[in-house]
Each structure stands twice: as structure tokens, then as C-alpha cells.
Design goal:
Elements: H1 10-16, H2 26-36, H3 49-55, H4 60-75, H5 78-101, H6 105-111, E1 116-121, E2 124-129, E3 138-142, E4 150-162, H7 164-167, E5 173-174, E6 192-193, E7 198-210, H8 216-226, H9 233-267, H10 272-290, H11 295-312, E8 315-317, H12 322-328, E9 331-334, E10 346-352, H13 369-380, E11 385-386, E12 392-393, H14 396-407, H15 412-418, E13 423-428, E14 433-440, E15 443-450, H16 452-458, E16 459-464, E17 467-470, H17 473-488, E18 492-500, E19 514-523, H18 530-539, E20 543-547, H19 552-562, E21 570-573, H20 574-578, H21 582-588, E22 592-596, H22 600-612, E23 617-621, H23 627-632, E24 635-639, H24 644-649, E25 652-654, H25 659-700, H26 708-718, H27 720-726, H28 750-775, H29 779-801, H30 808-812, H31 817-832, H32 838-841, H33 850-877, H34 883-886
Parallel strand pairs: 9-20, 9-23, 16-19, 20-22, 21-22, 23-24, 24-25
Antiparallel strand pairs: 1-2, 1-3, 3-7, 4-5, 4-6, 4-7, 8-25, 10-19, 11-12, 13-14, 14-15, 15-18, 16-17, 18-19
Length: about 900
Amino acid sequence: MTKQVYQQETEELMNDLNTAPEGLSQAEAQKRLQENGPNQLKEAKKKTTLSLFLETFKDAMVVVLLIVAIIQMVMGAHVESIVIFAVLILNSVVSVIQTKKAEGSLDALKKLSAPDASVLRGGQEQSIPAKEIVTGDIVILEAGDYVPADGRLLEEGSLKVDEGMLTGESTPAEKEITLLTSDVPVGDRLNMVFSGTIVTYGRGKFLVTATGAETEIGQVAGLLESTTEQKTPLQRGLDRFSKKLSIAILILSIVILGVQLVRVFLEGSTDMTQDIVNAFMFAVAVAVAAIPEALQSIVTIVLSLGTKKMAKQHAIIRKLPAVETLGSTSIICTDKTGTLTQNKMTVVDFFLADGQSGEFSKDPKQWEADEQRLIEISVLANDATISEDGTKLGDPTEIALIDYSEKQNQSYRELRKKSPREAELPFDSDRKLMSTLHTIDQKQTMVTKGGPDIVFERSSKVLLDGEVVAFTPELKTRFQKQNEDFSKRALRVLAFAYKEVNANELTLEDENELVLVGLLAMIDPPREEVFQAVADAKSAGIQTVMITGDHKTTAVAIAQEIGIFEKGDMALTGAELDQLSETELTEQLEQITVYARVSPENKIRIVRAWQDKGKISAMTGDGVNDAPALKQADIGIAMGTGTDVAKDAAAMVLTDDNFASIIKAVEVGRNVFDNIKKAVAYLFAGNLGAIIAIIFALVIGWSNPFTALQLLFINLVNDSLPAIALGMEKAEPTIMQRQPRDPDSGIFTGKTLISVTYRGILIALSVIVAQWLGNQQSAEIGVAMAFTTLILSRTLQTFAARSNTQTSIQAGLFSNKMVLLAIVVCGGLFSLTLLPGLREVFAIPAAFALKDIGLALALAATAVLLMEITKLILVKIQEPKTKSELNKN
């Protein structure tokens, strides 16, 4: 089996790459640059704005509307056709703008490339543009540098690299010159550095083994190109519904046209041409009545309103459909660090030789000598600081130690001022120790912190109740057992010791024969609000899965504490996941709640596995390694403090990096979908009423009750305001007790379908009665009565559309003031059609009087009153008692 570069001997690797310790010659470097191309990422060709614009016209309902508009133009109804064309173009422009806003993941990735790098060329150090680096180059690193390519370490001096954007780990990786013999994930390749990461401490030199697309970050870019964004449940539902509706409208219109033409030829006519034109216009009117022309715009507006609500919950929506998708989510794959936890290492326990642990006394005056010395060492053998403005500078572990001192009412500044540093032995990844020299109690004292096992081995004495005693095997066993207990709790442990010395300088030999003082244990603790958020997710039928780059032990410990990992659940590492076949993963998927040490490919596989089960999956992340999975997920959620790459690949950004904000946003998302359903149901109930009235008029032999312009006015102008107002309804009381909705379910299911049909029939009946009453005077008055009753009943229907389970009074008549405002404005818009000059345009004769309007209003109000009464009766008879019943709303 071919060895990976981190498994090869350095000499062997340099031979394979045909290079030397003094680097490549300038000529050889130029030759390789020509052969392999620059050290930068390639970007796939994007769709042009024109192609995106044309794609919007592939929707089935749009095709039908285009056909209708063309027919109307041929028939001479130019105003109606122009209105339809204008609406279609407006919807297309909005769609293209939203799509263009979503682009940019690869651009953000490119920005991570270092602009310049220091390399050895022919034994001479020189600075070159990072894009000119080739495999075989020797690159020199200093603290603060971006790593410009992937490579194998040749030299290192206390080198630490922040690889969080690739591995997800919260602390910098400590690098060392070593040979790894087994396959390990990126986070455990201690002898490698990776493009795009940042050197936080120390220095180093490495051999470039991969550039451009071949680097780890380049492979992430490749995954970004190969993953496809998923259509949201709402988009899929509307697509299916549009196709079915369009086919039904075409069939209905053709049937009506056929019946009309047969009637014309059978009955004979004095003006055959005009009658054929009227037959066509009748069929067109049916199509116009059935298609909710403003649907796309209204859905977009309601989703936009949802983005404002989510912004108040610290969730910024980048891709509009994500609002509704979040409400349909059934799986949340979440990162650990910073999302479930505070991303802040915190000391949570201590241990002294006398067995003390838990919490210090809050009053330092009551401390024993052991406690005082433990705090002193933790602060003195420490490079972290807190600036005057509160900014914390330094390694997260060291910051945790000075935070702990401050928490114990012991100022770290006072301790350092009292015993300033006189000499030091900096931390080294080989020794795993740090020592500093100070004068404490008039004695020169070296204080040391480091890994427990190292300190135990170098200690010969121990501080016990203020006395220095021998470090007996019994005491050593006590400390080792406590260290193991801390480790089982996934705590990071440091040991602290000291030694009196008689010198002004420190040597490595001084770090022996130490006096052990105690242990401090720390962890990145869970956010307080996460416990309730995980519980709320469970009650809403949402499973939370932790996916982290951290170690399995740490991940499981946190997951158990906050309620994600329970008895019977499984935890896998990325390597263990790779060993599972697709069948095995599918079988075990629902029991695996923790994944640790995962790769970008692992994350995509996990998300796809849930999607294959038909689950709507959300994925959180903040690093470059998360970007492909964020893009693959139904909704990608990036952290506000994360990389630009992650944000650009995601549909939503959390400004507070808090898991609890996701659950709050889920509630908003569910409410948004409910409101979209209410708005769509409102539109289709009104359209259904118009279609039934038209078909009834056709069958009975009456004239067409509406003109195409009247129907366009109702669909585009009158109905838009109430539909938008319904998008502002507050959440139903049971919204977070439901199970996530089935993504394959239609827009109209259960009670919604029944409600739409019932309301449509009542509107139709009121219109039919109105036309019959008007026909007693004349056919023209009959049309005016039908139009007036239709527009008034559809407007007043807004009250009934506010809820399927509550009347408008029960929901709070004034709880959504926008509904009342919309109804008032619609009344004003209708009154405009009665003005001289507009009456003729809307086919309202001069004889149509105030009493006729009053009669139409009475018929419309009666229909809406029946809707509310029926709802009240049905709710009393069949109150939902189970979650499954709630989900049918």
C-alpha cells in the first residue's frame, strides 16, 4: 500500500520530490510552475445572468400564463397581456437577484491564500508570491504567517498552528518532527502543515508536498464544486403543485373552449366570428381565474418577513427559501466548539495531595499554603494577559488559568507584580513543560506547569498541607487515579510544581526533582441555554447529532451532559465511519448521535445518509472543512465568527454562534411555513370560488360572470395585500409540539385542503346567487354583481384564513393589525373601480347602484360568517389530541 507523505521518511520524501535541503534552483522551480500551474484554486464556470433569467420561465404555471398572455394579445386584449408579461418579468428579476446573492464560496476560499511566502531557492532565502510555490520548495514559517501550501515539517521550534478551519478544533495544534506509521485524520498529522492555516506560535520550515487543488483546502474546494444545493421542501412542493395545477388548468380550459365552440356551431349564430372570439375569451378567463399570478411574489414577501423575525433571533438568512426549510428540519448536525459550548476553556476542578477538589474558598485569606501555591504557579508560568479594555491575549488554556485566578478573587496582575519573571524555559512540544523563575518569599523559585504524566515522573516531593514530603508510590497512585478520573470526564488536565534554585538562569536539568503541588482540570463547557434548547428540539421531533473534529471521549462527555448522547446511542470516529458500508451506515444511522475526528468527506456522507432517508437536514459549521457539507445540507448554518468560506456556502449565519438560536429560528421557520400555507390557501380558495362560478355560468347558459381584466385586478392587486398580511400571523400555540412535516407532503393536505375547498364553495355560492339576482335586471348588472361579490368575499375571507383551528376572534381580532389594514385598503381599491372612467374598464354599468353593492356585501359577509361558524363547530367536535393529528393542520 502506498505510504502517505506523513508516513514517509524525510529523506525518502525529498528524493521522491527531487529536491534538497537548500531548496530548488530557480530554473527548476520555474519549470515545475509551467508544468503544474500556479498554487491557487480553480473555479468552475458560473451561469450567466441571462441563463438564470431564462431558467425562471421553465415553471409550469409560468408557461401556462405565457400561453394565456399570447392568446389575449392575438385576441386584442392588449392591456391584460401586458399586465401578465410585466408580472412574469418582475418575478424573474427577483429570482435572479436572489441567486446572484448566493454565489461566492470559491471567492472566499481564494482569499485564504497567503499573498507572499518565504522560501529557500538555491540555498538563499527569498520572498515570492505564494501562487509561485511548487512542490519540492522549502518554505520558512514564522508566528503570524499563513501557511501557503501543504507540506512535511523539516524543522520546528515550539510550532503551533491554528487548524480550526480544517479540523474544527478550538485550540492550536502543536507540531513536532515525528514519523507517523498508521493512517490518521488531518487533525492528528502532527508532522504536517496545511495551506490556509495560521501559525500562532513558534517557527518552522517545511517541504511543500502539495499545491493548489491538491492541498487539503483544494480538495475542500473540489467538494464544494461537486456538491449541489438542495431544493427546499417548499420549492419542491410548489413545483409539484404547479405542474399538477397547470395540467388541470389546460385541460379545463380546452374542455370549456370545446363546449363553447360546439354550442356556437349547434345553435347557429348571426356573428360566428364574434361568438368564437367570446368562446376563446371564456376559456382564457378560466385560466386567468385559476392561476394565482401573484403567488411567487407573495411567497417571496412572506419569506422576507420571516428573515426579519429570524434576525431578531440572531439568525441572518442569506438564501431566502432557507426560512421555510429550517421550519421543516428534522435533523440538526451541529458542531461542538462554540455552538454547543462556550468556545472558552474554563477551569472546573482542582486536586491537591490531601485529596481536596471541587471549589476553592472565595476568600484567598482562608486558603492553605497548597491552594495559594497552586494559583501562584498557574499565573506565573503563564504568558497570557488581559488588556485594560478586557481583551484576552494568549493561548486559550493559559487564559483559562488567569480567568480562574481572577474568579478566585486573586488578581493575576498582583501576583506577577509581586514576583516578576526573571528567567524562563518556554514551552516545548518535546518536553511538554514550561518553567519560569521568580523570587517568592525571598527565595529564588522555579515554577513549572505541564502534562501530568511528565510532571509526575519529574517530581520527587509533594506539597502536602503546607509541608514538603516525599512523593511516595501511594501519593503518586492517588494523583494518577485522579488524572484518569478527570480524563474520563473529558477534562484537559495540567499539573503544577515548583523547585527552589540557586541561579539566575534556568537549564533543562532544573526541571527534575520537582515538588508537585496539584492539578487543575478544564474544559470548554456547554452553554447554559443549550440544555433547554436540546430538550426543546426533542419535543419538536428534531434529532440533534454532534459532528466535531475533537476527540471522541471529549465529544461523548459533552453530548451526554447536554442530552444528545443517551443510553443505547453510538459514537464513531471518522476512521470508524469509513469502515462502514452504505448499508451498515443506513442501518445504524439513527443510533449514531456523536461523530468525532471527522473529515470534510465524512460530513458530506453523514448529511447525504440522512437525506437518503428523506430527512430535512441542517448542518452547522464555521471552518473551511465544513463548507462542502454546509452546501450539501438542506440548510447550511454558518457561525458568525467562522470563515468567509463557510458563510458563503451556508444559507444562514448565526451571529451569536449559539445552538439555542437555531431552535428559536426553527420556531420562526415553522411559523413562516404555516403563514405561507395560509396565504396560498387564501389565494386558491378565492380562485376556486371564481372557477366554480364560471363553470356554473357556462353550464346554465349565463354570460361569463367576469372579464379577464377583473380577474387580473383581483389576483394581482386586491388579493396581494391580505395574503401578505396573513404572512404576519403569530405562531399557533402548538407549533413546537408537532413533529417535523413530511418534506414529500403537498402544500394542501389534511385540514388545509378541506378548508380551501369549503371556503371556495361558499365564495362560489355567494357569487352565483349575486349573478342570478343581477340577471333579474340585466346581464351587465349580473356581471357587476358577480365581480363585486367575488372581490368582497375574497377580501373578507382573510378573517377565516388566519387559522384552521381558531376563529379570527379566538386568534385575537387585533393581534394582527395588518389584516384589518389590508381589508380597509382593499375596500378602498374596490371603490376606485366605481369611479367614472374606470367603471367602463371594469365592465360596471351606470345602473349598478349602492343597493346592489350592499346586497353583494351581505352575500360576501354571510359566506365568511359560515366559514367561521363551521370552523368553530368542527374544532369543538374534533379537538386534536395527538401530535400526529396536529401535524395534519
